[in-house]
C-alpha cells in the first residue's frame, strides 16, 4: 500500500472515530488503534493493552493454562501445618486440594483461610478438606475472553481445566488472562530484570544476572566457554533441557562449571537467572 493511500485510509478512520461512527470490523478497529498510537494520541502501553484485549478473543484456555505437571496441589488429608509449609514454599494464594491424584480435585483452598488456624494453639484443628471452596471446572477449548467474563461475573479467581475425556489437564487463573492484556504481573525480581540494559550483568558478589532469552552463543562468548550442544537457542532453553522441566523460582542446576539459579519465572518461560562459576562439568540438579 502506498504512503498516500495509507494516509487516506488513516484519515478516513480518524474521521469516522471523531464522528462517533463505529468501525466495521476488528481489523479496522485495530488499524484505528495503531494509527492513534502512531499519532501519539495514545501511548505505547495503552496500545499494547488494547492489543492484548484483541489477543484474548483469539485464544483458548489450553493456550494459556498452567499445565497439569506444574500444578501445585495440597492433599485433602494434609494437616494445617503441612499445608502452611507448602504455601510458604510456593507463595500462591489458591491451591487445588486433591484426593489420591490430580484427576480427583475436591475443591480450592485459599491461603488466607489457614491464618486463624496457623496461629491458633488449639490441638483439634480441622484437616484441609474441611476448608475447601467449591470447584469450577471448564473445558480446555473454552475461549479466554469468555473465561474472563465468567471470572468477573461469578467472582472467582481459579478454575480447573479438563480435556474432552474429563481428565484434568491444567489450571487457569484470572491472573493468567490479565497478563495477556497488561503483561506479566511480576514479583520482587521484575524491577531488577527491567534495569538490565545488557543480557549479562556482573553483580557485586561475583555472580551474574542473566536474562533467560540470552542466546547461548552470547553466553559462550562472554564467559569464554562452550555449553553442551543441544537443540536449544537460549540460556533459558539450556536450563529447561538440563532440568527436564520448566523450572520454578529458586530451582537451580549446574552445567559445565556454572550454577544457574532461577530468580524469576512464569509457567510459560524462564525470565531471569543468577549464574555463578564453579568446577562442575556435567549436569547436576541441586536439591
Automatic annotation (TrEMBL):
Pfam families: CBS, CorC_HlyC, NMB0537_N. Residues 65-127, 131-188 form the CBS domain. The keyword Iron does not apply. Gene3D superfamilies: 3.30.465.10, CBS-domain (3.10.580.10). GO terms for molecular function: flavin adenine dinucleotide binding. CDD domains: CBS_pair_CorC_HlyC_assoc. The keyword Repeat applies. Keywords: CBS domain, Cobalt, Magnesium, Repeat, Transport. GO terms for cellular component: plasma membrane. Plays a role in the transport of magnesium and cobalt ions. Belongs to the UPF0053 family. This is Magnesium and cobalt efflux protein CorC.
Amino acid at each position: 500500500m502506498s504512503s498516500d493511500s495509507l494516509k487516506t485510509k488513516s484519515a478516513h478512520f480518524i474521521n469516522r472515530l471523531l464522528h462517533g461512527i463505529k468501525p466495521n470490523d476488528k481489523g479496522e478497529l485495530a488499524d484505528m488503534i495503531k494509527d492513534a498510537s502512531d499519532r501519539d494520541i495514545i501511548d505505547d502501553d495503552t496500545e499494547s493493552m488494547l492489543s492484548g484485549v484483541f489477543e484474548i478473543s483469539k485464544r483458548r484456555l489450553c493456550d494459556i493454562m498452567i499445565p497439569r505437571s506444574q500444578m501445585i496441589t495440597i492433599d485433602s488429608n494434609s494437616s494445617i501445618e503441612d499445608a502452611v509449609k507448602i504455601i510458604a514454599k510456593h507463595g500462591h494464594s489458591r491451591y487445588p486440594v486433591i484426593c489420591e491424584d490430580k484427576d480427583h480435585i475436591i475443591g480450592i483452598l485459599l491461603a488466607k483461610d489457614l491464618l486463624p488456624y496457623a496461629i491458633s494453639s488449639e490441638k483439634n484443628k480441622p484437616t484441609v478438606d474441611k476448608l475447601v471452596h467449591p470447584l469450577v471446572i471448564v473445558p480446555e477449548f473454552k475461549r479466554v475472553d469468555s473465561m474472563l467474563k465468567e471470572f468477573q461475573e461469578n467472582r472467582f479467581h481459579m478454575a480447573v481445566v479438563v480435556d474432552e475425556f474429563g481428565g484434568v489437564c491444567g489450571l487457569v487463573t484470572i491472573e493468567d488472562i490479565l497478563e495477556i492484556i497488561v503483561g506479566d504481573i511480576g514479583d520482587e525480581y521484575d524491577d531488577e530484570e527491567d534495569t538490565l540494559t545488557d543480557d549479562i550483568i556482573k553483580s557485586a558478589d561475583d555472580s551474574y544476572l542473566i536474562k533467560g532469552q540470552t542466546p547461548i552463543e552470547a553466553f559462550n562468548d562472554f564467559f569464554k566457554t562452550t555449553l553442551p550442544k543441544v537443540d536449544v537457542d537460549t540460556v533459558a532453553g539450556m536450563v529447561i533441557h538440563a532440568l527436564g522441566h520448566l523450572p520454578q523460582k529458586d530451582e537451580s542446576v549446574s552445567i559445565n562449571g556454572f550454577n544457574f539459579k532461577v530468580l524469576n519465572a512464569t509457567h510459560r518461560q524462564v525470565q531471569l537467572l543468577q549464574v555463578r562459576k564453579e568446577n562442575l562439568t556435567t549436569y547436576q540438579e541441586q536439591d
